Amino acid sequence: MARRLVYPLYQFGNPQTRVFRTNYFLTMVRPGIALPEDTVQFRIPMEMTRLELKDYLENIYHIPVTAVRTRIQHGSQKQRDHRNRPIKKPDYKVAYVQLGAGQTFQFPDLFPEKPQTAEPGSLEDIQKKFMEDEAQRQKEDPKRSGVPRWFGL
């Protein structure tokens, strides 16, 4: 988890407490496809292993972990620069963490959609009626059989 530093086993006097921080940053991401409720997706550094991820989550966040699956997502090469050379996005590692028994996780809905109710006579109601009238007016005439309106007889 952290770099292996060698410290003396004993120090005279009153030594300061040492705080060990990890060298890794995890990013929890919303998956593109639906996953089971007990599975969470992370983007992790390429150097981090499954065991280190499991220890990280269990020891720092006290999350029971049943299994960890990882894969490497290759960066795309679709973009090109001004010299028409391909620009490669960096690769990253994706980890799927299966939580312990009885643990579930769902992303919160931060921006719920509000139902659109327009009051009669409001600006939104007038705009909606105008757009419906325009759509009706621009609808093709079935008698003209596909001949445009500007081509009049």
Choose one word for the global shape. Answer: elongated
Residue-averaged pLDDT, rounded? 86
Percent helix, as a range, is 10-25%
Question: What is the succession of H and E elements?
Answer: EEHEEH
What is the CA–CA distance across the termini?
Answer: 81 Å
Fold and architecture overview:
The model has no long low-confidence stretch (mean pLDDT 86). This protein has helices spanning 50-60, 123-137; strands spanning 27-29, 39-44, 65-73, 92-99. The longest helix is centred in the last third of the chain and has 15 residues, at 123-137. By secondary structure, the chain is of the alpha+beta class. Helices cover 17% and strands 17% of the residues.
Provide key terms for this protein.
single chain; 153 residues; alpha+beta; 2 helices
